[in-house]
Specification:
- By secondary structure, the chain is of the alpha+beta class.
- The chain has 2 domains: about 10-125, Jelly Rolls, CATH 2.60.120.280; about 130-235, Homeodomain-like (Arc Repressor Mutant, subunit A), CATH 1.10.10.60.
- It has helices at about 75-95, 100-125, 130-145, 155-160, 165-175, 180-200, 205-210, 215-225, 230-235, and strands spanning about 10-15, 15-20, 25-30, 30-35, 40-45, 50-55, 70-75.
- The two termini are about 20 Å apart.
Length: about 240
């Protein structure tokens, strides 16, 4: 579980797996495009046979991009080719040393945003079950993204949402196949991995910054999730 400070588009061209966005898990396969707005919690499996492209739009991304996640299953060959041509053009300009290549890449990225917008309009509400469980879990993951560093537990977050922890966990299992505490711990441990890899913060400081009440508790939680201690993980990089 993670979130980004910019919108992201994933285009899978081979393989299959599962992706969880805002607490809802779905399968993906080849010719699936998935748009994730900034700040939306998500996580996905990438096996050895999975190939594709990830496009990051930047924090100053087009205001025309969708505000909600969308999962596109592109079956029309011409539509697949249109997308692949645009992605190839973006990569070609990024790799180029010609004058104006970054402006050209940005222009193609704007075309990609138009393509996503049009596909989202075609999709409409097809295949989306906006039931109470999904709405609650989407609210839970949004609140979790704000507070996962605070040390708040599932009971605290459920209370802010006006439901019991038991009901929240039941809804999480319905939409993602995972418990509420599993989603929360996964988000905290991903952030811990990121801080261990990208900063020189002491291990105990990282743990306390993510709401773990002691270094020992942080080490146990990290080891349960990753199979190694925080120090060993950092030393292995």
């Amino acid at each position: 579980m993670r979130s980004l400070e910019e919108p992201c588009f994933l285009w899978f061209t081979k393989g299959q797996g599962r992706i969880t966005i805002a607490g809802q898990t779905r399968g993906y396969t080849a010719h699936n495009g998935i748009f994730i707005p900034k700040g939306v919690m998500h996580g996905f499996e990438v096996g050895a046979q999975v190939f594709g492209t990830a496009v990051f739009f930047g924090q100053d991304a087009s205001t025309h991009l969708p505000l909600s996640p969308i999962h596109l299953r592109i079956r029309e060959v011409l539509t697949q080719q249109e997308l692949n041509t645009t992605l190839d053009a973006i990569q070609r300009e990024l790799d180029s040393d010609q004058s104006g290549n970054l402006r050209a890449a940005r222009a193609y990225i704007d075309l990609l945003s138009v393509w996503i917008e049009r596909q989202a309009l075609k999709l409409g509400d097809e295949g989306v079950k906006n039931d109470a469980s999904r709405r609650l879990v989407a609210r839970f993951t949004a609140l979790m993204e704000q507070k996962f560093r605070s040390g708040a537990g599932v009971g605290d977050l459920a209370g802010e949402l006006g439901v019991t922890a038991t009901h929240l966990t039941r809804c999480c299992r319905l939409t993602s196949g995972r418990s509420a505490i599993d989603l929360l711990q996964d988000r905290r441990i991903f952030e811990a991995r990121k801080l261990l890899a990208e900063t020189k913060m002491p291990v105990n400081v990282i743990g306390s910054s993510l709401g773990f009440t002691s270094a020992a508790y942080f080490t146990r939680a990290f080891q349960n999730r990753t199979g190694t201690s925080p120090r060993a993980f950092r030393n292995s990089l």
